[in-house]
Specification:
ten-stranded mixed sheet, alpha+beta, single chain, 34% helix, four-stranded parallel sheet, 3 domains, 810 residues, flat
Length: 810
């Protein structure tokens, strides 16, 4: 229990330490968060309505100078053409990127103006509505602005081929009126994904359709940010991130440990030692020593003394000296011999046994505390800084633009309605990287009820005038393609340093997302035609281009390449007459110009005196367009044959007639093949039809084996009327059942009989056919457009092709 109390007290002390540490840094963290919030979310933007505005330079009459106005260049978009197979936003990104970092740092803006119809048609004073969309740019000086104006048009029309920009001027829009309100949208545009995770195609037409019944003016402005400012912003955010990271997490660790150890040991040791030794020593020694010496000594001494005694006292004195001299010498001779012999033998045994047993017990208690505190405000802000740095890194490649949209209308409600609809249009899946803001400036012309005395009313009138001038000054910035430059009355502070004192009501938008901010309509709206046109190859290459000898051959100009709604005059297409000997296929949708192309080809053939045969199964327009054309001799008119004798000459064409030099059986096979293509022949029908045709030729007088007409006079040929008789004979003489005979009669006889009656009898069963020379060796038009049966049209066209082939072979 005591330990638990101590642990709880320890935790309280730890938390208190953290609290004390937080209190110590709280003020610094709040200041950093405030700075980061202003840099990323631009939290100062709601203060724009209370900011002071930097006034534009005006003359003594209060007018903007001509030099100021001349820096704004404007185009009206009349036609917008794009390829639906291409990514329209990527194309717009390319266009805006081409205008980035140009000399004079031009701003790009779009002006949308809408006026609703006024009056009533029944009163005769109806005035149509007006809608216009303009693209412009604003430069820092007049010099070079004309070149940039041309560059904008060339870049736009080059990116969106076929589009039409008309040069205009800002004064022609009549925007400087009585401005009573202005609403600004500061938002971060981004791409939108649909449910299939594909990019949603959203154009400006959605905004235009919502606002079609409102009078309003919208100005969308994008000003470029220089590379130096981009790098400075990046460094500032990185420094903020570093300073915030220190305060992101705080960790405190505390530990307590107790231990107790008990040890017991037993040791047993036994040793046995045994040694046996044996030693023998023998020593012999012999020596001799002799000494001989001598010496002399001489000594001399002298002594003297006296004594006295007085009154019982005595004294004595004495002195002496001695001198001694001594001399000694000696000589010694010593020698010796020693001999020693020893033997030693030792044997030993040593045994040692040791036993040790140790027992120990250790008990301990250890507790540690780790307290981690994460500042969520700091973590979230650091994540936003990461996202913003990524956004800036993209901007280094695609550019960075300061963007805002401005709206004014007849009343504040309509202006706010337009602003909110536009904001909803541009916000996407990644727009949460920064907050969006809507600022509103409006002119209040009704004094409050509490103003009773004259002084208060006069003061209100002065404020009202200042407010009106303020809004007009804001709008003067906007219509000339500039963001208003505002000064905060009380800027943000970090320490003693004032931050973000001069501001613009904008958000920084990457060039990748700019097309979603400066959007264009993807469908036609009143005043702007939008076409989505497929792109085709623009280089027509034939082998004749590589052959210089073909340059002098006959040919004609077909036209020029038509690409994305415009004619490319430098891409001229010529056709050689020799190339028309092969098959030529002309295709296209309705109204694309197939008939017109064919007419140009025919005109080229006529110019080069070439004969032709036209078979017209559908419209019948060629006989009307070329009925005045003459033959090559320029005397006879063109041959026109129709299936209606009231229009032109009636076509006479016997399918069973063939040119001399063609074998009759060969012709029969080709003809039956055409019948099989036009009619559905099943079971024994092809055999019955073939036998009937062969009998028809034989009965007239043809020797089928030798392909020779044996009758009198010129060769004769069967017709569909002859074939009907032979079909009945062949079917009736066959061994088929009665039911089968009835089926074959109904399927074959009835069908062939329809070609031998009515107007078709005059076409297929005439006594005289049109000669092959008229059909195939002159200028002839065969019009089949009046026929109602597709099978009959197919039959006639097949027969004409067959006869032409046989005529050329023969």
């Amino acid at each position: 229990m005591d330990y638990e109390i101590k642990s709880a007290n320890s935790q309280i002390q730890n938390i208190s330490a953290i609290k004390k540490y937080e209190d110590f840094n709280q003020q610094s963290i709040l200041e950093l968060l405030n700075v980061a919030d202003m840099a990323i979310n631009r939290t100062y933007l709601p203060e724009c309505v209370n900011c002071q505005i930097e006034k534009l330079g005006r003359d003594e009459n209060g007018q903007l100078p001509h030099d100021f106005k001349s820096r704004t260049k404007l185009f009206q978009l009349k036609r917008f053409v794009y390829n639906p197979e291409e990514n329209i936003m990527e194309k717009l990104k390319t266009f805006f990127l081409s205008l980035y970092h140009l000399p004079l740092d031009p701003s790009v803006f779009i002006i949308i103006k809408n006026k609703t119809p006024r009056g009533k048609r029944v009163l005769g004073n109806y005035k149509a509505g007006e809608f216009s969309l303009h693209i412009g740019l604003r430069t820092e000086s007049v010099e070079g602005s004309s070149n940039l104006q041309k560059m904008l048009k060339d870049s736009f029309c080059g990116t969106f081929l076929g589009s039409d920009l008309i040069e205009t001027h800002i004064d022609q829009l009549d925007l400087q009126g009585d401005i009573k309100n202005l609403v600004c949208v500061s938002a971060m545009p981004s791409v939108k994904k649909d449910t299939d995770d594909e990019t949603a195609k959203i154009g400006l037409e959605q905004f235009v359709d919502v606002m079609r019944s409102k009078n309003y003016t919208a100005v969308l402005i994008a000003s470029p940010v220089t590379s130096e400012i981009i790098q400075q912003r990046k460094r500032d955010l990185e420094n903020l991130y570093t300073r915030l990271s220190v305060n992101r997490k705080q960790t405190l660790q505390f530990g307590e440990s107790e231990s107790k150890s008990v040890s017991e040991g037993i040791s047993d040791s036994t040793g046995v030692s045994s040694t046996t030794g044996k030693s023998f020593t023998e020593t012999k020694s012999q020596g001799h020593s002799s000494t001989f010496g001598g010496g002399t000594s001489e000594s001399y001494s002298y002594n003297s003394g006296s004594s006295s005694s007085v009154d019982g006292s005595s004294s004595s004195s004495g002195s002496g000296s001695s001198n001694s001299t001594s001399s000694n010498w000696s000589e010694s001779d010593t020698w010796g011999v020693s001999h020693s012999t020893g033997t030693s033998e030792t044997t030993g045994t040593n045994k040692n046994h040791s036993l040790s047993v140790t027992k120990g017990t250790t008990q301990g208690t250890s507790k540690s505390y780790s307290i981690e505190c994460e500042n969520k405000n700091v973590s979230d802000m650091m994540k936003k800084i990461d996202d913003t740095l990524k956004h800036i890194s993209e901007s280094e490649a695609f550019g960075l633009w300061e963007c805002a949209a401005y709206f004014t209308a007849g009343n504040t409600f309509d202006a706010m309605f337009a602003a909110n609809n536009y904001r909803a249009l541009v916000l996407g899946d990644s727009s949460a990287i920064a907050n969006s803001y809507v600022n509103r400036w409006e002119f209040i012309n009704t004094p409050p009820d509490y103003l009773h005395n004259e002084n208060e009313r006069q003061n209100f009138m002065k404020q009202q005038l200042a407010n009106k001038l303020y809004i007009n000054e804001l709008f003067s910035y906007v219509i000339y393609g500039m963001h208003p430059h505002l000064t905060r009355r009380e800027g943000g502070y970090y320490g003693n340093e004032q931050l973000f004192s001069s501001i613009m009501p904008t958000h920084a938008v990457s060039g990748r997302d700019l097309p979603y901010f400066l959007a264009l309509p993807l469908k036609s709206v009143p005043g702007v035609v939008v076409d989505s046109i497929a792109a085709f190859e623009r280089s027509v290459y034939t082998k004749s281009h590589a052959d210089k000898n073909d340059e002098n051959k006959k040919g004609f100009r077909l036209g020029a390449i038509y690409h994305m709604g415009q004619v490319e005059t430098e891409s001229e297409v010529k056709l050689s007459l020799d190339k028309l000997c092969s098959h030529t296929f002309i295709s296209g949708s309705t109204g694309s110009g197939k008939s017109n192309t064919m007419s140009v080809i025919l005109q080229g053939l006529i110019k080069n005196e070439v004969d032709f045969l036209i078979v017209e199964p559908a419209k019948g327009e060629y006989k009307q367009d070329f009925h005045r054309v003459k033959q090559k001799n320029q005397t006879e008119p063109i041959n026109i044959f129709t299936t209606n004798p009231l229009c032109e000459r009636l076509l006479h064409l016997n399918p069973f007639r063939f040119h001399q030099g063609i074998h009759v059986l060969e012709h029969i096979d080709r003809l039956l093949n055409i019948f099989g293509s036009c009619w559905e022949l099943t079971a024994a029908m092809p055999a019955i039809l073939k036998r009937s045709v062969e009998q028809a030729y034989e009965n007239i007088g043809w020797d089928l084996g030798n392909s020779y007409f044996m009758g009198p006079g010129k060769a004769q040929y069967p017709t569909f009327a002859t074939i009907v008789k032979e079909l009945r004979n062949v079917i009736n003489s066959s061994d088929y059942s009665k039911e089968a005979k009835g089926n074959y009669t109904g399927a074959l006889v009835t069908r062939v009989e329809s070609l031998a009656s009515g107007i078709l009898r005059q076409i297929f069963c005439a006594e005289e056919d049109i000669s092959y020379e008229i059909l195939f060796d002159s200028r002839t038009i065969v019009d089949l457009s009046r026929l109602g049966s597709p099978e009959t049209k197919t039959l006639i066209m097949g027969v004409l092709v067959m006869l032409l082939s046989e005529y050329r072979m023969a």
